Automatic annotation (TrEMBL):
PANTHER family in alphabetical order: PROLINE SYNTHETASE CO-TRANSCRIBED BACTERIAL HOMOLOG PROTEIN (PTHR10146), PYRIDOXAL PHOSPHATE HOMEOSTASIS PROTEIN (PTHR10146:SF14)
Function: Pyridoxal 5'-phosphate (PLP)-binding protein, which is involved in PLP homeostasis.
Protein known as: Pyridoxal phosphate homeostasis protein
Record's keyword terms, sorted: Pyridoxal phosphate
Record-annotated Alanine racemase N-terminal domain positions: 11-229
The keyword Cytoplasm is annotated on this UniProt entry: no
Family membership noted in the UniProt record: Belongs to the pyridoxal phosphate-binding protein YggS/PROSC family.
Name of one Pfam family that matches: Ala_racemase_N
Presence of keyword tRNA-binding: no
Originating species: Rhodanobacter humi
Length: 241
């Protein structure tokens, strides 16, 4: 199969991210792009690796399992960005380099236990629910201070920042409010002594707003890999550019 669109898409999104940084008065070097390869086959990911990409976001443990075998020679760092069931902690502890969807104590406990058995530690971001939508996972903002304090006891989990999904709406004011809330939560946590500089927020359809509010990392699927089947609950219509 021909994957030449990937190179063009990658160049285009890096260019658009850099432009959003400049528009916000920020240094483009401060904002990383996490390519989200969910639903795309290992051969597509391999073509992306050939472009120099080596970190990929996935929202299902099963997909990390299915892809990590055939791509074992690529040295990929798999980043879990989707809702994680506690009974999948074993595979995550074995295969993932990072979890951005840590949102409850039982999950931290399960990951810690499995990571101890593996003799590994991983970076984690705490997923916070900044929108009022029922369908979104994440820790309620009011619980963040207690949760961060509690995470200190798990030495296999290096807490590095926060992650969120903004409300799914066309109203940029509401979307931006979600991102702003995450930044304010991070700043308050830093003021309390937590070393959590990272903000993972923004996707193909809303990353300029996230960058304007301080994202250090944007998670980009569609704009790099193309459209996914519409059954994917996180499918967002393209906003045009
Ligand atoms: C799918 C997904 C993304 C990427 O979404 P796009 O709109 O395709 O860029 C980002 N974050 C999470 C948690 C996702 O599940």
């Amino acid at each position: 199969m021909d994957h030449s669109h990937l190179a063009a898409n990658w160049a285009d999104i890096r260019h658009r991210v850099d432009a959003a940084c400049r528009a916000a008065g920020r240094d483009p070097a401060e904002v990383a792009i996490l390519p989200v390869s969910k639903t795309f086959d290992p051969e597509v990911v391999r073509a992306a690796v050939a472009l120099g990409l080596h970190r990929f976001g996935e929202n299902k443990v099963q997909e990390i399992r299915d892809k990590s075998g055939p791509l074992a020679d690529c040295g990929i760092a798999w980043v879990m960005i989707g809702h994680l069931q506690t009974n999948k902690a074993k595979d995550v502890a074995r295969l993932a380099s990072e979890v951005q969807s840590l949102d409850r104590t039982e999950l931290a406990e399960a990951l810690h236990r499995r990571l101890q058995l593996e003799g590994r530690s991983i970076d984690v971001l705490v997923q916070v629910k900044t929108s009022r939508e029922e369908s979104k996972y994440g820790l309620p903002p009011a619980e963040l201070p207690t949760f961060l304090d509690r995470l200190r006891q798990y030495d296999t989990l290096r807490v590095r920042g926060l992650m969120t999904l903004a409300i799914h709406t066309d109203d940029p004011v509401e979307v931006r409010a979600c991102f702003r809330q995450l930044r304010e939560l991070r700043d308050a946590a830093i003021a309390r002594g937590h070393d959590i500089p990272r903000l993972s927020m923004g996707m193909s359809g809303d990353f300029p707003l996230a960058i304007a509010e301080g994202a250090t990392e944007v998670r980009i699927g569609t704009a790099i890999f193309g459209r996914r089947p519409t059954s994917d609950s996180f499918y967002w219509p393209e906003t045009g550019h």
